[in-house]
């Protein structure tokens, strides 16, 4: 009997230890102190690699994530991924949140949850100045580039139906810009805030604003479905909007107040 009781006690202790280990190793985002933030660091001024600072990822989204996390008692670990893989990173629990200039479209909402919108922008078509492209109709028969998985890819496909253009995608924004410069693309559709940075650097490029669908404007934070931290981040985001902290970040990275 004593031997049987000993076996039972050992079994119960083993189960308890395994359970404790499981709880320790399987923390939810709400229990963590360090949150993994996935982003696509090719999107200045939202997020990009600053080669002057030991390849550190910097930008508006990075500052915003750190400010929100500080208010809530978290720290942020940034991981760079292709834009097309960001939602997958959330669904497979490789990341706790995504800040990457991501628009909360209805299609994306089927897979992830979004915070309130924190910044609004429009689409822009960038072309070479010597291409004499004055309107989207001038693109007929040509090629237009867009980032894979972005709402600009959807915009390019809409344009394809209207103007009969070929659409090609790239994983990174610099690739799109380079393909416009070298003549492979007649134009590329990029968010205007990001596009303006490239226009400022390269004087052979020009751009025209295309606008965005009313229900597909702005950037929001993406979370896994049912994330326990989404409401906390929304509350902290509202606080930053109300007390002017968000406007200060907008001025720092975009040079002006929100539209």
Automatic annotation (TrEMBL):
It is found in: Cell envelope. Coiled coil: none annotated. Residues 1-20 form the signal peptide. PROSITE patterns: PROKAR_LIPOPROTEIN (PS51257), SBP_BACTERIAL_3 (PS01039). GO terms for cellular component: cell envelope; membrane. Residues 34-257 form the Solute-binding protein family 3/N-terminal domain. InterPro entries: Iontro_rcpt_C, SBP_3_CS, Solute-binding_3/MltF_N. Residues 34-256 form the Ionotropic glutamate receptor C-terminal domain. One of its GO terms (molecular function) is ligand-gated monoatomic ion channel activity. Keywords: Lipoprotein, Palmitate, Signal. Belongs to the bacterial solute-binding protein 3 family. This is ABC transporter substrate-binding protein. It comes from Falsibacillus albus. The lineage of its organism: Bacteria, Bacillati, Bacillota, Bacilli, Bacillales.
């Amino acid at each position: 009997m004593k031997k049987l009781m000993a076996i039972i006690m050992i079994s119960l202790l083993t189960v308890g230890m395994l359970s404790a280990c499981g709880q320790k190793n399987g923390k939810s985002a709400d229990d963590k102190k360090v949150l993994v933030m996935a982003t696509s660091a090719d999107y200045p001024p939202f997020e990009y690699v600053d080669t002057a600072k030991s390849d550190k990822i910097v930008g508006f989204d990075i500052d915003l994530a750190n400010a929100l996390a500080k208010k809530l008692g978290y720290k942020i670990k940034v991981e760079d991924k292709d834009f097309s893989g960001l939602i997958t990173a959330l669904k497979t629990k490789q990341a706790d949140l995504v800040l990457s200039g991501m628009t909360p479209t209805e299609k994306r909402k089927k897979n992830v949850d979004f915070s309130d919108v924190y910044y609004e922008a429009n689409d822009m078509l960038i072309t070479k100045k010597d291409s004499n492209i004055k309107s989207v109709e001038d693109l007929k028969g040509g090629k237009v580039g867009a980032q894979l998985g972005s709402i600009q890819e959807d915009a390019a496909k809409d344009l394809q139906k209207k103007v009969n253009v070929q659409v090609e995608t790239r994983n990174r924004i610099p690739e799109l810009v380079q393909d416009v410069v070298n003549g492979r693309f007649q134009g590329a559709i990029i968010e205007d805030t990001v596009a303006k940075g490239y226009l400022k650097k390269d004087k052979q490029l020009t751009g025209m604003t295309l606008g965005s669908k009313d229900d597909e404007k702005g950037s929001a934070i993406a979370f896994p479905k049912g994330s326990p931290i989404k409401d906390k981040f929304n509350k902290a985001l509202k606080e930053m909007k109300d007390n002017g902290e968000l406007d200060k970040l907008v001025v720092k990275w975009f040079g002006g107040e929100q539209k």
